User: What shape does this take?
Amino acid sequence: MIDIEERNKRFTWINILLHQYDPEPSHAKQVAKLALQFFDELKSLHKLDSTAHDLLYASALLHDIGWCNGETKHHKNSMKLILSQKLPGWSDDEKALIANIARYHRKTMPKMSHKRFARLALHQQALVSQLASLLRLADGLDRSHESVVDSVRCVIHRNKITVWAQTKGDASTEQYGFEKKKAMFEQYFSTPIQLLLT
Assistant: This one.
């Protein structure tokens, strides 16, 4: 467990990278906010600790920095850029996890044919899959990049999960984004998840 001063130092560097490379940091911050809400709301399901919380936060803030190299394959570019940076306060293993989680915020789910994913230990692969699935949900809920969703609340039922999203304005784009990105979560946790807008 790291102390507050060390944690602040770690995230100072994450924020420096965010503002240096991401052309739209407000979107990344909104996605990070929602990703952490999903993490907290679903804690009884994933049972992850504060270290995983910080890895998700860092990944969410950096998930779109690959846009600085253009739209094409920006998720892969985000991973490469994270791996190429010095991240004071973060270990090499943590940096690899952050990079992989950010990489899987869109497109293909993790596969053993992906070299950087395959290099991770089995428990790290599981962690990447869990956290990337939460990141995808959050990213889907800011598809318009307009911060339409204020907050999310999750209800875990016996055979499904309901997400109540508090919105301000038209959230049809976010609803579409959520539906498009929920498959990884449903596959990993073997539980259907539905979105209700309020």
